[in-house]
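Example 332, ligand tryptophan.
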Amino acid sequence: MEEPKKRILSGIKPTGTLNLGGYLGAAKNWVALQNEFDCFYFIADLHAITIRINPAQLRKQAKELYALYIACGLDPEKNTIFFQSHVHQHAELAWVLDCYTMFGELSRMTQFKDKSAKNADNINAGLFTYPSLMAADILLYQADLVPVGEDQTQHVEICRDIANRFNNLYGEVFRLPEGYVPKVGARIKSLVNPMQKMSKSEQDPNGTVNLLDRRDDVIRKFKKAVTDSGSEILYTEDKPGIKNLMTIYSAVNGKTFEEIEREFDGKGYGDFKLAVGESVADLLSGIQEKYTQISEDKTYLENLWRGSAEKASYIANKTLRKVYKKIGFVEK
Ligand code: TRP
């Protein structure tokens, strides 16, 4: 008999648009997984409201991300792509898991400490219990693998701790998930500060290339990218700017670092930056064309996310009912 496919699950918060770092570090790798695994991806809108966000902006960004995922090559027939808020079991299991998550372990979470420092006027309880909602996201689907960036591995760890604690009390209810940090492309840095991750929350717009950026903006940002002293194109630790550009170039066109070094042997930073900019702009124009096409068909998109939420909900509900039963809630 054929082995059932392993299940993959991941989420992205709609707190900004998808940028090149998110594409090369996440979405692009997801496309490569769609045949081998049973994949679930969602827009983490429940998580997004732990930081104040304008309602119109939230709605727009959430829909944009949904269409962008598909434009990036995620086949909606092979992957279940949905909105977290459409599957009510996430919030319900999160409450249960809150009661099996300790105050002390939540206070030690790096992201909580960082975010409370950055949002001192809004350290809400949701920000604090963010990890138990994320644990619910993962455990509801009995996911085997959770592709995340390095900054999220602590959340996968605490998810395992919570699952273990629950299983020890009630038997094998939850499958223990593994974090899955892709090797290449996971670490795209800001173009203006190559020591920092290219991030949705970056202040300087020149540091981040968004998937919907216009071609001339993309090229301009790459031309302005911060480089290092010296003039050679070499992949070394003491050239963080060039190293970042090489990582991008390699992720976009599949060339190895040695091939890139050879290609630009004797050429300067200017030539190299332009070449990286053009390769990224070409990549984005394909994604943008598909994005425009998909976004125009509102009925298609709505039907898609309704159907996906139903499918997700069916699976999530099985887990939730099992949990309720184990805990001792009276059955309906
Ligand atoms: N916390 C993740 C992030 O900020 C988003 C997320 C929410 C997530 N729920 C998830 C990722 C479940 C993986 C699995 O990037």
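Summary: Residues 298-327 form the longest helix (30 residues).
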